[in-house]
Each structure stands twice: as structure tokens, then as C-alpha cells.
Amino acid sequence: MTSKYELIDAEKDTYPIAKMCLWSDVSRSGYYHWATRPQSATDARREKIRRLVQEIFDANHGIYGYRRIHAVPRRSGIDASLELVRAIMRGLGLVACQPRPWRPATTQADGGQPAIPDLVRRDFTAAEPGTRLVGDITYIPTDEGFLYLATVIDCHSKTIAGWAMDDHYKTPLIEAALKSATKTITIQKDCVFHSDRGSNGGFNRSSQHLDFGGVQDRYGGLEQEGRGRA
Fold first, then answer.
1. pTM over cut 0.90
2. How does residue 225 score in pLDDT terms, banded at 50, 70 and 90?
3. What is the residue-averaged pLDDT of the chain?
4. What are phi and psi of 48, to 5 degrees?
């Protein structure tokens, strides 16, 4: 009950007391009885919590929000409700700054490469298997760092035809994924592989007939624009 009264008292300059009593399912007479009793102990307690909140916020470089700050007094045996800590932070003007976690960029544009036309033209369908493929790379955070997953999807069946994983996202990872795809589908002549434009070696393309060092011979006819036939 005390925590409800504390919340009402902390927010009385923002919301009507009568409405907050209704929302909190407490009586106005009960709140006023609590509010008009000798305040020395209550004020001393709130001031102690206020100083503690400020100290925790400053000690953690302003990145702790009210939930994380609330956990610290609880571990120290100080009883302070979550809403009381939140109201105190609001009253002190403390706003947590949450830095964005670092995430690897799996597509890095290379402006030094010539522009290549989009052969797919946003049409991600195919009349036959192995005639149009799309690929992408994503990352999976692990305890030992990021693991990169490259996938190749057949536009006809909409299934993952090939995939590969490694601790990098360089060209060999994409080659391994394409090689994996050849074990599940037959790559047709003039097959187009579409992916984001990036600086992964011979894959600096938005759409391409692939031929990176012998793909045509090994994988059944994929050729890359700019190296083989368009």
C-alpha cells in the first residue's frame, strides 16, 4: 500500500490525486492520512533513496534506466518500489542513454566498382528450379564472436538450396554456399544469382551471371557480368 501512496505523492503535480487513487484502487482518505502523518521519517527515506538513485546513475555513466537502478537498492536491503525509483528519476531529470550495440555490416558498398544492371528487376519468381537464385548473409552472435551465415534461395521453390557458415563474410563464404546449392538443385544455363551490392570480391554485383574462377565449369553454367557473357 505504501508504494501506491508514494507513487500518487510523486505524481500529484502531474495527475489529479482523486483519479490516481481510483486507478490505484486506494481511498483518498487513506492517501491523505498517509500524506499528513509526521513526514520526518518519510522525507528522510525519500531523500536517502533520491541520493542513492543519483549516485547509481552517475556511477554507471548515465546508462542505467529505472529498472536497473531499482535492482541496486533491493540488493542492499533498501525497500523502494519500481515506480518510486521511476518517479524520482523523472523528478531529478535523469534519462538513461542507451548506446546502440555494435553490429557488423554484411553489405559494404564498393564505389570503385562499375555499376552492374539489375537482371532480376525485382522479380523474385522463376518458372523452373535453378534459373534464378537470391542470396544474403546474416550474422549470429555467439560467445566466441560473430558467426556469418550465407544462404542461397531458389526463386522457383522458395527454399534454401544452399548455405555455408564461417567466421568471416568474404567471397569464399559465398562460394561455399553456392557450391552447397549445387548439391540440392541443378544450376541451369544462364542462371542469375541476385544479392545486395557489396565488396565481396567478385560479388560486387546486384545481379549477376556468375563465373568466379571457374564456376561455369564446376557449377553448371553460372557466369558473371563483366567477366563472362551477360
1. no
2. very low
3. 75
4. -65, -45
Domain segments of the chain: what residues? Answer: 2-92, 101-230
Distance, CA of 167 to CA of 12 (rounded, Å): 55
Question: What was the pLDDT predicted at 40?
Answer: 60
Bridge pairing between strands 145-154 and 132-142: antiparallel
3-class SS at 224? coil
Spacing of C-alpha 225 from chain mean position: 35
The enclosing H or E element of 43 equals: helix 40-59
39-95 per-position pLDDT tens digit: 567 777 888 888 888 888 888 878 888 888 888 766 766 677 888 888 888 888 888
Question: For residue 221, what is its C-alpha cell?
Answer: 553454367
CATH assignment of 101-230, among 3.30.420, 3.30.70, 3.30.450, 3.90.350: 3.30.420
Angle at 42 between CA 79 and CA 68, to 5 degrees: 30
Round to whole Å and give the CA distance between 40 and 52. Answer: 18
Relative to beta strand 207-208, strand 192-194 is antiparallel
**Residue 162, pLDDT score:** 92
- For residues 209 and 190, the answer to whether their CB atoms sit within 8 Å is yes
